[in-house]
Design a protein that fits this description.
This protein has 335 residues and is α+β, with helices and mostly antiparallel strands. The chain has three domains: 19-107, Carboxypeptidase-like, regulatory domain (Immunoglobulin-like); 129-192; 205-332, Glutaredoxin. The protein has helices at residues 2-20, 99-102, 111-127, 137-153, 162-192, 233-248, 267-276, 291-295, 325-332, and strands spanning 25-32, 38-43, 48-53, 59-64, 69-75, 78-84, 89-95, 104-108, 205-207, 212-213, 222-228, 254-260, 282-285, 303-307, 313-315. The strands form three sheets. A seven-stranded mixed sheet has the order 10-9-13-12-11-14-15. The chain has a four-stranded mixed sheet with strand order 4-1-7-8. A four-stranded antiparallel sheet has the order 3-2-5-6. Strand 12 (254-260), helix 7 (267-276) and strand 13 form a beta-alpha-beta unit. Helix 4 runs antiparallel to helix 5 (162-192). The model is unreliable at 1-19 (pLDDT under 50). One of its GO terms (molecular function) is oxidoreductase activity. Its main location: other. Keywords: Cytochrome c-type biogenesis, Disulfide bond, Redox-active center. One of its GO terms (biological process) is cytochrome complex assembly.
Length: 335
């Protein structure tokens, strides 16, 4: 009989525990010097967007049914990255005038978000080191290695979600790879793309006017190169400014060369845009040939390059047409 009573009591206890497990997260906080009357918690991948009203005193609180994972909390244009999981009861405090520096998380399930807040500060400090990319190679590698080691040490003794830990280890490995690439690219540029160095060449790019054009065909004139694509809105934003510069330097000793890096599927779009936007200058199509872009370590477009009449580099990352410094540069060269 005693055994039966024990088993019955144990079963009831199990049922009670299950009932106590939450299928939602409670999130509250207080923002001093708030930027907005609301905060928004979102994750586009989960199609989740929750707007929470912030009181006059800066406090807020809500419960949310969520999928465990990463979210962003927005206060106006400022934001922080959170890691939320059902069952958590998290309280956040911050001063919006020193957003990243003052943000804190307490409560059940707050450890991951607190980890992210500290990581954000540490990375901000690392990226704010203006001398980092100019260090000798051994010093650079040592500093990055120490940063990664310190990051990984923070896992020791911490009670963190296993999925979160796996993600963060992958993230720090990606950051190390990114920083190393940035450093190597800068060293390459300093050595191979410095002012006065011979420019990498493109060969036999299709010319919209007919035939093909190579960089060597343009020797004898200054060459202002625009690397762009029809899908690139910032590239298209430069077109009106480029037209004005081309008009100002019409019949001068300079060629304006626009090289489309559109994929083959957008070839007809490129042809049509030349007509629709009345693009002038030399219009070339790279046909997915990345050799020229790779040689210049192009990581984003638009990218502008200025060469002298001998094919030597004046500026491997020249000012955009919308930047008044471009015309100043041309004038300093007496173009």
């Amino acid at each position: 009989m005693k055994k039966l009573v024990y088993l019955l009591a144990f079963s009831i206890a199990l049922i009670s525990c299950k009932k106590e497990q939450k299928d939602y997260v409670t999130f509250s906080g207080k923002i001093t010097n708030k930027n907005s009357e609301t905060v928004t918690i979102s994750n586009p991948q989960f199609k989740f967007n929750k707007v929470i009203k912030v009181g006059e005193d800066g406090t807020f609180k809500d419960t949310m049914n969520i999928k465990d994972g990463f979210y962003r909390l927005f206060d106006g244009k400022e934001y922080a990255t959170l890691y939320l999981k059902n069952g958590a009861d998290i309280n956040m405090t911050l001063d919006a005038q020193e957003f990243d520096e003052t943000i804190t998380y307490t409560g059940v399930g707050s450890e991951e978000s607190a980890f992210l807040a500290q990581s954000s500060l540490n990375q901000e400090k690392l990226f704010g080191d203006k001398e980092l990319m100019d260090l000798p190679e051994l010093d650079f590698r040592s500093k990055v290695s120490n940063f990664v080691d310190d990051f990984n040490k923070r896992f020791e003794g911490a009670t963190l979600d296993s999925t979160f830990v796996a993600n963060q280890k992958q993230s720090i490995a990606g950051l190390e790879k990114y920083l190393t690439k940035m450093y190597n690219d800068k060293q390459y540029i300093a050595k191979n793309l410095a002012k006065g160095a011979d420019s990498p060449k493109f060969v036999d790019y299709e010319n919209n006017a007919g035939g093909t054009t190579s960089l060597d065909d343009l020797k004898g004139k200054y060459v202002y190169i625009d690397l762009w694509a029809t899908w690139c809105q910032p590239c298209k934003n430069e077109i009106p400014f480029l037209k004005k510069v081309e008009e100002k330097y019409h019949n001068k000793n300079i060629e304006f060369v626009s090289i489309s890096v559109d994929r083959q599927k957008d070839y007809e779009t490129w042809k049509k845009m030349i007509v629709d936007k009345e693009l002038s200058g030399v219009q070339l199509y790279a046909k997915e040939d990345k050799a020229f872009m790779d040689a210049y370590k192009v990581s984003g477009i638009p990218r502008f390059i200025l060469l002298d009449p001998e094919g030597k580099i004046i500026d491997s990352n020249a000012p955009r047409p919308s930047n008044p410094k471009l015309v100043e540069l041309f004038e300093s060269l007496n173009i």
